[in-house]
Write the structure tokens for this entry.
Amino acid sequence: MFIGSGYVGLTSSILMSYLGHKVVCVDNDQKKIDTLNNGILPIYEPKLDEYLQHAIERQKIKFTTNYDLVNFQDIQAIFITVSTPQQASGEADLSNVYDVIGKICNLISQDCLLVIKSTVPPTSCSKMIKYLKEKGYNIDIAVNPEFLREGSAVEDFLNPDRIVIGINDQESEKILKKVYLPITSKGVQILSTDLVTAELIKYASNGFLATKIVFINEMADLCEKINANIKDLSHGVGLDQRIGQKFLNAGPGFGGSCFPKDTLALDALVQNYQLNSHLLKAVIKSNEMRPFAMVNKIEAILSNDLRDKNITILGLTYKAGTDDIRCSPAIEIIKILLSKGSNIKAFDPAGMSNASEYLSNERLLFTDLATNSLMLFKDTDAIVITTGWPEFIELDWSMILNLVRVPVIVDLRNILNPEKIRAIGFQYYSIGS
Ligand code: UGA
């Protein structure tokens, strides 16, 4: 059983049923549950809709808002996948997790294992066990952090680099190893640790990846000053197997619902223990300043004057392959440009509806590329690529050249080929070269 049907909950529940398990997925959002029962995914995640259809057709999955409709005696493991949002202090807010535990503790059988898949700060699970004991319940809790990325969630879930489980006893380990057998039998490693270490592995992984991105972004700034090339630099550094090629793409900063929140929570945790630690604060600060640095770059290209400039923004989501705009650098960049008096036309292949619900301004126009490319590029003073959607590479740039007022492209994701785009007639600026 899964409780919470966000990105992680939906992907894992649907794919668990694909692996052969019978799954019930509970969420308190009736609209979402109705959509799912009609075979429609409420999120954009490539390929996941096919797996949803498959699960529904084979009657391997049920979606409900009502715990009374669940036969708890049949359930061996309950995965809690509700959100753990950020509080003002930076710490994670666990009230959703406690809400769920409070609701189900008197419904579940003694043999049922409670698995925390939501990202929870280290020591949370042992506190939950204590809380349950104090209420008179002797329920086992395990932790099973998820490492899937939005946009490649299906592939990441079915072929992970590793599966991490934090357990208190052998019985919990046995249950989780059985659940994941279809994946581990293909050679994927399952790592069992104690609860607190598994909790920390999740934060440390996200913290390290976020640090890697900030490091390469700062190297890109240095490259621009000394005429070095960031793509070659990333490649050359990444060829060292101790470093690796992945997560060395310079850009407008990291966003999404995980890295910004988890780096803050990890820093808050470190500070709680009064450790002499400075790295995470610097990572957070550097990333928060990144959209401002990107706007300064655009401003310098446009003769240090952004007032009344027409800017076309390509990309609203925090990365390609998702409709998620949470903590998206693109959104931050738009807000700063608007505050400096620019007029914005913006397009994204998947994030338009989320962005237009979140952001409105009389100088901001969301414009569909397919139906209105003329409008999107006409009289533009600069085209800024803020999200690395592959479809932007394939645009008819020669046609676009004829529409714009000034042929400037600022590619904050380094996705275009500089030689080709300059040959067409654009002034092309990228990150770190
Ligand atoms: C991240 C982790 O990669 C997952 O392992 C983890 O499960 C997930 O958070 C989570 O905690 O739930 P996600 O936020 O979906 O996944 O996206 P990523 O692909 O990691 O990208 C995060 C941000 O970093 C994006 O804004 C992306 O554009 C940026 N990024 C990534 C770069 O700027 N450069 C890179 O080289 C890689």
The first strand starts at residue 2 and ends at 3. The mean pLDDT is 96.
